[in-house]
Design a protein that fits this description.
alpha/beta; Aspartate Aminotransferase, domain 2; 7-stranded mixed sheet; 16 strands; globular; binds pyridoxal-5'-phosphate
């Protein structure tokens, strides 16, 4: 006869729910959620008993409640949360791209909580146009005749194609049939918009005569795509915007350009590499320009479409526009961002994207020196911590070949273990406010260009010190 320990029966739901600690949970989460969590905890304990793994585990009401409390807390925690971007890529698509200005974030919070004049003309008391809220600003900042806004630049391109060329032909250079991160391929977008793609030229060279030969009775639109995320160097040729605009005009066709990032200002004046300016592109005779709200503009995710009035009208009246329109939250953030451009002297101060892109290397270096001892203390003996020069990236496909001189902390395992850096990256990601770095040359590299909240970082170092890290 084998001896088995007597197993106490599991408490009932009622018993667990009667007690001051259950009451505390009920105040935080509501009774029904707590009852559900208690039932789930009891089921878990029952399953563990039948699997005999923990058959002798005591299971009183306290144990059930503490299990329930852990799962209630976990389920109440949002999955989307702030992280500290130390990847060195300022406009990181996977990390949410541009950071909004304080003003923009406040405007979002304000209209989020309140009714607002989204589509309501306060003068006449009649229905208004939501795009009208930012159209004047976009006209002023780009020199366009009219403007409209959709959810992102991919949507902007789709809508322009559908509205101006549905069922007809669009002429594009082969060198511009690009893929942008997240499987956005220009040829696929064209198919979705139900337009026929006519490719001209070759990958590295496209000439004016290539466009001229491709134009036929079924051509509806000439399109140019700013190949922002890669560069072809060497024996290349492309047709300049001005020349292409003349070709379009002579053939009574509209010319649309997808600028991708597109800047409202001259970034060279801020010591940054050159990037096409929307105003210049329009001034070159281009009829329609599309660009992103959350790349160099430094605003919310949005797709901006600016250009000739009659074309913008056709675009904004297309049925797809209704499906792609932006919310009041987007418009609030976009308007506040655009308003910042009316005070160019304060742009660097007020727009995080511009502030981070133009941050001086010696300032980042000084920050690295300040943080170095804290990191060394948190990591302990197993790691070497050094300040090193690195190159940050603009990101989001903009300015691919140009890098921004920056400074980083390089964390190298004394053991030279090749697995240790990946383990440290994972530990950094598991912090309450996750820190996102990268591995380079056997070290964890934390590029500090985008770190502005030093206390938040130091608080994470305290947490890191508690985690036992194998180097
Ligand atoms: C980034 C980019 C897009 C897509 O813009 P989203 O705002 O991410 O939708 C389209 N075209 C070009 C050239 C781009 O660089």
């Amino acid at each position: 006869m084998t001896e088995t320990k007597p197993v106490s029966p599991l408490p009932s739901v009622d018993r667990v729910m009667h007690g001051p600690q259950a009451e505390v949970l009920c105040v935080a989460y509501g009774r029904s959620a707590v009852v559900d969590a208690v039932r789930a905890a009891l089921a878990q304990l029952r399953a563990e008993r039948t699997s005999k793994a923990k058959a002798d585990g005591a299971a009183d009401a306290d144990k059930v409640l503490s299990l329930a409390a852990v799962s209630l807390a976990a389920r109440a925690t949002p999955a989307l949360k702030p992280v500290i971007n130390l990847t060195g890529t300022v406009l990181h698509t996977n990390l949410g791209r541009a950071l909004l200005s304080e003003e923009a974030a406040e405007r979002v919070a304000m209209v989020a909580r309140s009714a607002c004049n989204l589509e309501f003309d306060l003068g006449s008391g009649e229905r208004g146009e939501r795009d009208a809220l930012v159209e004047e600003l976009l006209i002023e900042l780009t020199g366009a005749e009219a403007a409209t806004v959709v959810n992102n630049n991919a949507a902007a391109v789709l809508l322009v194609l559908a509205a101006l060329a549905e069922g007809r032909e669009v002429v594009v250079s082969r060198g511009e049939l690009i893929e942008i991160g997240g499987a956005f391929r220009i040829p696929d977008v064209m198919r979705s918009a139900n337009v026929r793609l006519v490719e001209v030229g070759t990958t590295n060279r496209t000439h004016a005569k290539d466009y001229l030969e491709a134009i036929g009775p079924d051509t509806a639109l000439l399109m140019k795509v700013h190949t922002s995320n890669y560069k072809i160097v060497g024996f290349t040729a492309e047709v300049a915007e001005r020349e292409l605009a003349e070709i379009a005009q002579r053939n009574k066709l509209p010319l649309a350009i997808d600028l991708g990032a597109g800047s409202l200002i001259d970034l060279e004046a801020f010591g940054l590499p050159k990037e096409p300016i929307v105003r210049d592109t329009l001034a070159a005779g281009v009829d329609i320009v599309t660009f992103s709200g959350d790349k160099l503009l430094g605003g919310p995710q949005a797709g901006l479409i600016v250009g000739k009035k009659d074309l913008i009208q056709r675009i904004s009246r297309h049925p797809l526009k209704r499906a792609l329109r932006v919310s009041k939250l987007t418009l609030a953030a976009l308007e506040a961002t655009l308003l910042a451009y009316r005070s160019p002297d304060f742009l660097r101060r007020d727009l995080p994207t511009l502030r981070l892109l133009t941050r001086a290397q010696d300032e980042i270096q000084a920050l690295a020196e300040r943080l170095k001892p804290h990191l060394a203390a948190a990591l302990g003996d197993g790691w070497q911590v050094a300040v090193t020069s690195v190159a940050s990236q603009v990101g989001s496909g903009s300015l691919p070949l140009d890098e921004l001189p920056s400074a980083a902390l390089a964390l190298t395992p004394v053991s030279k273990s090749s697995a240790a850096p990946q383990r440290l990256l994972a530990a950094l990601r598991a912090l309450p406010t996750p820190i996102i770095g990268r591995v380079g040359d056997g070290s964890v590299i934390l590029d500090l260009r985008c770190l502005e909240d030093e206390p938040l970082f130091l608080a994470q170092m305290q947490e890191l010190a508690r985690v036992k890290l194998k180097a």
